[in-house]
Design brief:
The complex is a heterodimer. Chain A contains twelve helices and two strands; from the N terminus they run H-E-E-H-H-H-H-H-H-H-H-H-H-H. Chain A is mainly alpha-helical. Chain A has a single domain, classed as MetI-like (MetI-like fold). Chain A has a two-stranded antiparallel ribbon. The longest helix of chain A is centred in the N-terminal third of the chain and has 34 residues. Chain B is mainly α. Chain B folds into two domains: 61 residues; 207 residues, MetI-like (MetI-like fold). Classes of the chains: A mainly alpha, B mainly alpha.
Chain lengths: 290, 307
């Protein structure tokens, strides 16, 4: 056998688990989902082809359609910006202190270690009408606040998610910040550059690949957020697209309708990712010298 | 590496600082003051990060009445350890849930790690056009929204009458994890090809080379994956939520969620739930501390997004 052919055969052999996994649990569901999005299917009988009806219904009749996407965007933007900005700020601070770096990193990561359901129960007890935060407010003589009512729910969920999300950002950003060559920062010192301009002109370009990766992953993840909303509620004030898809699929068993909804989210993810790669990609690769 | 394209960089850094000694001491003082300020900021934020967890821990020792009292106290007036006992007796299924979760952790972690090692090895050491194309596909799979695959997957599992079994929660692991495949591949690339070729000369097949050369060189990365995968499955809630219906088949997260919905006079048994949360967090924290020593060596994203 020719060496090149042998390489390809061996390559296929080793990646075959992924090929099987991707075909069965990635590619096939995607295609099937696209097919179902043009069908009416309620888990009984066969899917009935109805053309674009699901999409037409979604855009014209679905009561909270635009609301779900507005909520998704608000939640995604708030959590992404807050966790990245704070995570970067804390990474720079932790990096510049001489001792206890590991200690602070661990402390800041602690919220991220809590299992999902434990975090949920923790914040549920915080935000409840007779919960801990209202107890503290009561001590201060302040009236109870409904943390999960229409006005406050989104803020409450964002606070909870940011609290849990900062640690993960520091885990990724701190090594990147630490890898910025000290000589470059010092040579700017001699020029009398202040901390901010050092940060903007040296640190930021150097860590931009990591930052960009985190940004993309956050956006993709944020556009699919539904966990906190499902667990803590907030009704229409916090309902997101993916939560609505979950409800339609798992509670109402409107599989075709839910698939169409899901594909709209997918297309949105694609568009946003492409835009970010178009605009962000260039700057990042320059700095990386790639 | 490329230097930053900043005009300030072009200025030659030759200008001697005047009064070198004073300026040195001044700089030292400034650094000290700066450090103290940073420590104070970091400590204050650190307290904010830990506070909710601390409140959770202390509240889990309060009596039901004290928990719901109008006045909030940080520490319990009487320490009620029976909240923790109540966790174990709260449901006849409690130990089954723990057992189910452990089965899920072991099977998933073994399967997923094993697949990821094989796949990453394929991508790292058998370079061809096809590999480059498929690797892009692999990276793109991280972009597929969960909702897109969730709906049809559920339909198929339901038609196969395999919902409420372990299979929908186990078989998807066969493809490995895209993120860790990426990480392992970076690691494996670092192993010099000369060593691989020398072993080949000695008659070691590619599979033997994987286990004798590649895997021993990737132990920190593999251990990181094992620990974090185990941690993820220990806390997994949203996956089992879709597929499991019978309480005796629940994992621990679903079980606790069932307890969460039980109320007396519209009030949850919050101290017990918080005690359960604390108990559930302990294995996660243990795994984290186990993994954290390996973490710094294992994960490096220096290649950036393009890899």
């Amino acid at each position: 056998m020719k060496r090149q052919t042998k390489t390809v055969v061996q390559f296929l052999g080793y990646v075959s688990p992924w090929l099987v996994g991707f075909s069965c649990f990635g590619l096939f569901p995607m295609v099937y989902s696209l097919y179902m999005s043009f069908c009416s299917y309620m888990m009984v009988g066969k899917p009935i082809w109805i053309g674009f009806q699901n999409f037409i219904d979604l855009f014209t009749k679905e009561r909270f359609f635009y609301k779900t996407f507005a909520n998704t965007f608000v939640f995604m933007t708030a959590t992404t910006v807050a966790t990245l900005v704070l995570g970067l700020l804390f990474s720079v601070l932790i990096n510049s202190i001489p001792r206890c770096k590991r200690f602070f990193q661990t402390v800041y990561y602690l919220p991220a270690i809590l299992p999902f359901i434990a975090g949920t129960m923790l914040w549920e007890s915080m935000y409840a009408r007779f919960g801990i935060l209202n107890g503290i407010l009561g001590n201060l003589g302040l009236g109870p606040i409904e943390f999960l009512n229409t006005n406050n729910a989104m803020t409450s969920l964002v606070v909870m998610s940011v609290w849990g999300g900062i640690g993960g950002k520091i885990t990724m950003l701190l090594p990147a910040v630490a890898a910025v060559p000290q000589e470059q920062l010092e040579s700017m010192d001699l020029d009398g550059a202040n901390a901010w301009s050092k940060f903007v002109h040296v640190t930021l370009p150097m860590i931009s690949p990591t930052l960009f990766y985190l940004l993309i992953m956050d956006i993709i993840g944020g556009l699919q957020a539904y966990g906190p909303m499902m667990m803590l509620g907030g009704g229409t004030a916090t309902i997101t697209a993916t939560l609505q898809i979950y409800n339609y699929a798992m509670i109402d068993h409107l599989m075709g309708y839910a698939s169409a909804y899901a594909w709209i989210v997918f297309v949105l993810v694609l568009i946003v990712t492409v835009i970010f790669f178009k605009f962000g990609g260039r700057k990042v690769y320059y700095a990386d010298g790639d | 590496m490329q230097t930053a394209t900043d005009p300030m960089q072009a200025v030659p850094a030759e200008a001697e600082p005047r009064k070198p000694k004073n300026s040195f001491r001044g700089k030292k003082m400034r650094t000290l003051r700066k450090n103290i300020a940073f420590y104070i900021i970091l400590a204050l934020i650190g307290v904010m990060m830990v506070l909710p967890t601390a409140v959770m821990i202390f509240s889990s020792f309060k009596s039901f009445d004290e928990y719901y009292a109008l006045k909030f106290r940080f520490f319990p007036s009487v320490w009620h350890f029976d909240n923790y006992v109540r966790v174990f007796t709260s449901s006849e299924h409690f130990f089954t849930w723990v057992g189910n979760t452990i089965v899920l952790i072991v099977l998933n972690t073994v399967l997923c790690t094993f697949s990821t090692i094989l796949v990453a090895y394929g991508f790292a050491k058998f370079r061809c056009k096809l590999a480059d194309v498929l690797f892009m596909v692999l990276l793109c799979t991280m972009m597929i929204p969960w909702a897109v695959t969730m709906v049809p997957s559920f339909v198929v599992w339901a038609r196969l009458k395999l919902t409420d079994t372990i299979f929908p929660l186990l078989l998807p692991s066969i493809g490995g994890s895209a993120f860790y495949t990426f990480m392992f591949k970076q690691n494996m690339r670092g192993i010099p090809n000369e060593i691989m070729e020398a072993a080949e000369m000695d008659g070691a097949g590619s599979f033997k080379r994987l286990w004798t050369i590649v895997v021993p060189n990737c132990v920190p990365a593999i251990a990181t994956m094992v620990l974090f995968t185990a941690m993820g499955i220990w806390g997994d809630y949203l996956g089992p939520l879709i597929y499991l219906r019978t309480p005796s088949k629940f994992n621990i997260s679903l079980g606790l969620n069932m307890l969460r919905s039980q109320t007396t006079d519209g009030k949850q048994d919050a101290p017990m739930l918080l005690a359960a949360s604390v108990l559930m967090a302990i294995p996660s924290i243990a795994l984290y501390f186990l993994g954290t020593g390996l973490f710094s060596k294992g994960i490096s994203l220096q290649g950036g997004v393009k890899g």
